[in-house]
Amino acid sequence: MHKKVLKALSAAAIAALCATGAAIPAFAQNVERPPSFDPARIAGIKAVGENYRIANPVGSDGFMRLYVVKAQAGDITVIGDALMRTRMVELGALAELNRISASDSFNKSLVDAGLSPIRYAGELITNPGQTISNTLSGIGSLFGQVGSGMNNMGKTPDDPMQSLLGVTKKRRELAVHLGVDPYTDYEHLAAKMTQLSEAAAAGGLVVTGALMAIPGVGGIIVTNTATSSNISKLTRDLTAAQLMDLNRKKIADMGIDAATGETLLTNRAFTPLDVTVIVASLESMSAVQNRGTFIARASSVNRHDAAYFMRKQAELLSDYYAKTGALTAFVTLGGYPFNVTRQGGVIGVLPIDALSWTDNTARSMKEIASAARAHGYAGRAEMRITGQSTALAKQQLKDLGWTITDNFKP
Predict the structure, then answer these.
(1) Among residues 410, 408, 384, which one has the least CA distance to residue 397?
(2) How far apart are CA 317 and CA 327, in angstroms?
(3) Distance, C-alpha 203 to centroid of its chain
């Protein structure tokens, strides 16, 4: 079963990097089987946690590592080191929430608030409006929430009624406190946060205080220094609809086609936090031309792993640009956005874990190299990846005229 899962994931894992172009015959030679890894030896990855264990070995598909996580709440598959690190934080948050919801102190806070602990210990509340009252405050903020909600009706993951009743606000506060995405696609954590946020909205300060006593287990993982200081505050204070309005304005201010921007804003493969990070990252690259190229490619993905890949690339590029100023424009090569450098070359700064020379990577890289030549770039062609490449991948890229830097950190 383990091999079948990895095989099924392989094609999807490269969706963010490869365009969906015409079929190309497979290369009969000079390719290799993608390596596998011991999770205990992968940097930044904890193989065993309180409520999970990563299956050994961890496979790869030529671009990304493919994790199978045996978790108490149910097994999950995770594509890529960056997303695995995020899932580790989320699994830790789930353990803390389960622990606090079963504790005597939390149950006492429910009783003190006039609520039944049993109601919040099992199934989710189906009609929080019957138990919540007097939870709305901040008239100016409320008007803003209603306006954004109407403008973006049906386009965001927020439930309009829960927003008005204060549940989504409590959920955002709880998520930022824990250091996780309020709109996570990890269903077990999402359900638990919703359940306890309903309790907090119903119980007011008493229950909120009990929840905020939970130690934070991570931090909303935003690596680019240009945006990290403000992202947590925006995520906590603004609804998903308000974030959408903010991002829509920023996209327009960057001169990006409104229809292209709207496709990204409404693409549910991304969470509202993902979109906010991407837009803020691109906004920080103020002198880089054709930023709409990145938005257009991001808009086309239909899986969260691919969406998260593009988010992490946007963060890497923002940080790299802030430190070097070396980028002048985006350009599409082989269906994917790369960057033009001030020296007239091209560069790809990519959150790739484990680059090996498989049929798929060979096709993709040859298309990319061919497109770069067709554009006539005379300067250096290079890739900088956050992970490692095999010796064969390095040699094949060199033969194509590209250099590669492993373990890249801006």
Answers:
(1) 384
(2) 9
(3) 32
| pTM beyond 0.85 | no
CA separation for the pair 303, 310 (Å, rounded): 11
- 217 falls within a domain: no
**Three-class DSSP category at 340:** strand
- Give the DSSP H or E segment for 327: strand 327-333
Structure-token pair, residue 284: 């920080």
Omega prior to 351 cis, within 30 of 0:
no
Residues 81 and 103 in one domain: no
Cβ distance 114 to 185 under 8 Å?
Answer: no
Judgement on whether residues 127 and 242 belong to the same structural domain of the protein: no
Q: What torsion do the CA atoms of 390, 395, 398, 402 make, to the nearest 10 degrees?
A: -20
DSSP symbols for 133-182: -S----HHHHHHHHHHHHHTTTTSSS-HHHHHTTHHHHHHHHHHHHTS-T
What would the two tokens of residue 401 be?
Answer: 């005229």
226 alpha carbon, distance to own chain's centre: 17
What's the domain range around 122?
90-212
Instruction: For residue 301, report the phi and psi dihedrals to the nearest 5 degrees.
Output: -80, 155
**Alpha-carbon distance values, 80 to 60, 83, 266, 271 (Å):** 9, 6, 24, 17
For 36-90, the pLDDT digits (tens) are 999 999 999 999 999 999 999 999 999 999 999 999 999 999 999 999 999 999 9
CA 90/CA 92 separation, integer angstroms: 5
* pLDDT tens, residue by residue, 94-117: 999 998 888 888 888 888 777 766
Single residue among 58, 86, 114 that ends a domain in this structure: 86
For residue 59, the cross-strand partners are: 66
